[in-house]
Hints:
Strand order of the largest sheet: 1-2
Radius of gyration: 63 Å
Shape: flat
Oligomer: single chain
Number of helices: 12
Number of strands: 2
Amino acid sequence: MARTESRAFDAYFDPTWHGAGAPPRPRPAPFHAETQVPQERYKYFQRPLVEHLNPLSTNVLIAPSTKKEELDDGDARVKDAGTQSTYRESEAQTDPYTPAYVVPEGTDPEVLMLEHLKFGEGLPAGAREVEKIEQARAKRHLEANLPPATDECSLALRRRLLEWQEMKEFNIKQKEIDDAHARRLGLLRRALDERDQDREFMQEQRVDTLRQKRGEVRDRALESIQAQRIKTLRKLSLARGRLSQKEPYSAPTPVSNLTGKDARRRKAGRDIISEYANYSSTQYAPITREGTKLDKDSHIFDVTRVAPHLNGHGLLNQLGDEPPARLTETIVKVPIPQSELPAKTAEDRHAATLRQDLATLTSVLEDERNPQAAADRKEAARLAALPAWSPSKTRVEEKDATPEKETTPEDEELAEAHAYFGNLLENVEQGRQSIRELRDAATTPATAAELSADDDKEARRRAVERGAADSIAGVVASSLLDYLSKELVREEEKEALAQLAKTADIERRAREQAETDRREAEERVKARSDEAS
């Protein structure tokens, strides 16, 4: 870099500027410690004169100073600002600088086909990039040599060449897609194989661990059994030795056959074997007065309070002839119909209301079809509401010819008195009815207008009854249709929500599987790249 006349003194005022024509800067003289000693250097080796410190002198040794070799940078006038290389990390790598350019008219250099290549996207160029460059060069050569579209023959030839080039590019693209697909399938196949191998390895590890645990349990059990066997054999050998030294065994006297001091002495040390060997001992038939307490509240099980003491043969025969009713009669409980059970849920209450409305509507329709039956039913209800002494009810009721039990003279007198008063009340009622009929006969007969008014009233009454029946039927039908429509809408919404949830679940599972496959493939590729690096 040449020094300009306008900046002739930059070498003196700018310490970082180095020019080709700058005069050499004077260098400072090197410092030598052994020849040039500072004036106040001795102050660094003094120690304080303090009484309580150690009075011994300190051995101070000065490290020998060696003369270092100075590096001579030479007369270089150029400073490196940065280096662009392929050995740097990809994250810190930058794209090469490309200056602005202008292409002359009529020229199309091939180097412009490489302007889209960047570091990490084609650079540094490999075999694949070179192949693509050759394909682009061939396409460029073909487009440059296409026949002009001047006549029909040239146009057909041009079309065939373009179709051939398009088909060639399509085949190349299809091959790239197939290769990428094959590579992906290979990665997935290797990933699946490795996963299967990992699973088999884990299963083998589990089986080995389980086998080891079971083996340890078996060994511990065998050790315990062996220790128990040795202990039992030792006990048997000791017992056999003691028996060989003693007299022959004689069965001891049972405790139940002992009395007084012998029994108390034997009780102090029980002979369990003799007690269980003798079936007449207290072990099988204990005596309650020897300490066994009766059950709590045992008096409730005393049958003498409710039944006579059976001491004779006659009482036993009477007990057999008169068994209790619960032994001779069979009581079958009729189950309550489902319709009569109390409603617990909203659906049950709705169904009960619907059944009640249907029963009301059915009774109204039956009354319209059979007026005589309706009148009889109303009359029976009216008679049921009358008191028991009413003469009308006494006249309608039928007396049972066979009394349930024998009557006494007092009962006969009461029955005669009841019949007398009943006849008296009946005569009074008949007299009232006769007086009412006479009064009705004495009144003026109804005119034609009154008869027509009565007919109109009857027609209006029938119309009102018919309207009431129709309104009841309409209410029931409308409530039923409303319930059915709401149930239909609810079922449709339920099916739609279920279908939506099912579709969402299927899509979620598909996405999870795709994400899992992608992550596994990435992990495999990353692991292989790490191994390769």
